[in-house]
From TrEMBL:
Organism in which the protein naturally occurs: Novosphingobium pituita
Pfam annotation, one family: EPSP_synthase
Summary of subunit composition and partner proteins: Monomer.
Positions that bind 3-phosphoshikimate: K29, S30, R34, S175, Q177, D328, K355
Lineage of origin: Bacteria, Pseudomonadati, Pseudomonadota, Alphaproteobacteria, Sphingomonadales
Protein name: 3-phosphoshikimate 1-carboxyvinyltransferase
Primary gene name: aroA
Protein keywords: Amino-acid biosynthesis, Aromatic amino acid biosynthesis, Cytoplasm, Transferase
EC category: transferase
């Protein structure tokens, strides 16, 4: 995807009345990536239901196909993945195009690092700005070699180690992508790979590796540090996986229903893994009416339907300790805060500066353009809310710059639904990376479909 203005797809999102009825958000992006990757490494056929068919996951599928797996969508929507076995990845014939997807890139760099193959990774303008040193540094210790664009960016070439060495690595940054890259590298490495995680991050890799039969243990220290050990040269057994709905996608509709007067919406099948679901707790602390209905287990992950009703929100200080459990949800939390009574303070968000865009600055600029009162700090935003009044929205000649970042586009679309004159975003194309039916679901929930 390029910044070429001729290709951008702008749209003005305007108030369309309350969000009501029932919607179902697509499958979890993190779990979808991992189900394709681990399915491709198992011996035999893995079946995946509810896979997110977004561009990021399709980038992972294309890369795993290029390395030998057979991955097909059935007419009934189920995906079949015929794996090559751990150690069986083939050298791809051309560069692996990762599109906009940091998760595909970092996790696959881990896989390639311990296979005796060479792969070249390329991506779009947003991905090509993102730091890869955080995975290059530890993975180099396996014996793999990396040649990257200056600054540890894409394009980059990975020459996998022929006799990989197992890592023991303490994560210097709270990142599930770095943790997962090291664990995936450990699959085709003799001995035990150990990741020490001082701050817990999403644990889908650990859950799914165990589900596929890997020998993985997690030891919890008294200060909350997790020590994850994976026995290498694993043999993965094919699985039948049901992917729960993505809480990071549900987040946009939860906030929209809270801030658009008169809304009463049920969002079905939302994954509520505690390492992911902190946004809903924070919104409840702000006074949001979010009820969990029919809590259940889907594919080894906790799931519920969420009933969300329009609510008077109050600003809070968000505890920095919860940041990893809602790291992707801050753009839309900022939108909720802009409608609350009083001040919301967020801190500890430095990781947001290296996502698909610099989400601290980009959201400050976007919210200001829509008429909100926002102050940017080094590691967060301070937002003075409107006490329930709609934001003015963007002027007729102004557009929010989304910088190829799907979550900026969706967060500001939500702001538009609650605004006086609408919010125009400069490009809706990136939404398809994680939530291709977002605009269709807005139409459904507002009765326009
Ligand atoms: C992800 C981890 C997070 C998150 C991303 C998906 C994953 O990234 O922002 O959307 O699937 O492991 P970091 O590991 O960089 O925090």
């Amino acid at each position: 995807m390029s910044h070429d203005p001729a290709q951008m797809r702008p749209r003005r999102f305007s108030a369309q009345g309350p969000l009501t009825g029932r919607i179902r958000v697509p499958g979890d992006k993190s779990i979808s990536h991992r189900s394709i990757m681990l399915g491709a490494l198992a011996v035999g056929e893995t079946r995946v239901t509810g896979l997110l068919e977004g561009e990021d996951v399709l980038s992972t599928a294309a890369a795993m196909r290029a390395m030998g797996a057979t991955i097909e969508r059935q007419a009934n929507g189920e995906w079949l993945v015929a794996g090559v076995g751990v150690g069986g990845l083939l050298q791809p014939g051309t560069a692996l195009d990762m599109g906009n997807s940091g998760t595909s890139t970092r996790l696959l760099m881990g896989l390639v690092a311990t296979h005796p193959i060479t792969a070249c990774f390329v991506g779009d303008a947003s991905l090509s700005k993102r730091p890869m040193g955080r995975v290059i540094d530890p993975l180099t210790q396996t014996g793999a070699r990396f040649t990257s664009y200056p600054g540890g960016r894409l394009p980059l070439i990975v020459e996998g180690a022929t006799t990989p060495v197992p890592l023991t690595y303490r994560l210097p940054v709270a990142s599930a992508q770095v943790k997962s890259a090291i664990l995936l590298a450990g699959l085709n490495t003799p001995g035990t790979t150990t990741v020490i995680e001082p701050v817990p991050t999403r644990d889908h890799s650990e859950r799914m590796l165990r589900g596929f039969g890997a020998d993985l243990s997690v030891e919890l220290e008294s200060d909350g540090t997790r020590i994850i050990r994976l026995a290498g040269e694993a043999e993965l057994k094919p699985q039948t996986i049901t992917v729960p709905g993505d809480p990071s996608s549900a987040a946009f509709f939860a906030v929209a229903a809270l801030i658009v007067p008169g809304s009463d919406l049920i969002i079905e099948n939302v994954g509520l893994n505690p390492t992911r679901a902190a946004l809903f707790d924070v919104l409840r602390q702000m006074g949001g009416a979010i009820e969990e209905l029919d809590r259940r287990d889907v594919g080894g992950e906790p799931v519920a339907d969420l009933r969300v009703r329009a609510s008077a929100l109050t600003g809070i200080e968000v505890d920095p300790a919860v940041v990893p459990a809602m790291v992707d949800e801050f753009p839309v939390l900022f939108v909720a805060a802009a409608h609350a009574r009083g001040r919301t303070v967020t801190r500890g968000l430095e990781e947001l500066r290296v996502k698909e865009s610099d989400r601290i600055t980009v959201m400050r600029v976007a919210l200001e353009l829509a008429g909100a009162n926002v102050t940017e700090t080094e590691d967060g935003l301070i937002i003075e809310g409107t006490d329930g009044a709609p934001l003015p929205g963007t002027a007729p000649d102004a557009r929010v710059a989304t910088h190829l970042d799907h979550r900026i586009a969706m967060a500001m679309a939500v702001a538009g639904l609650a605004s006086a004159q609408g919010v125009e975003v400069d490009d809706t194309r990136p939404i398809a990376t994680s939530f291709p039916v977002f605009e269709a679901l807005i139409a459904t929930a507002t009765g326009q479909a």
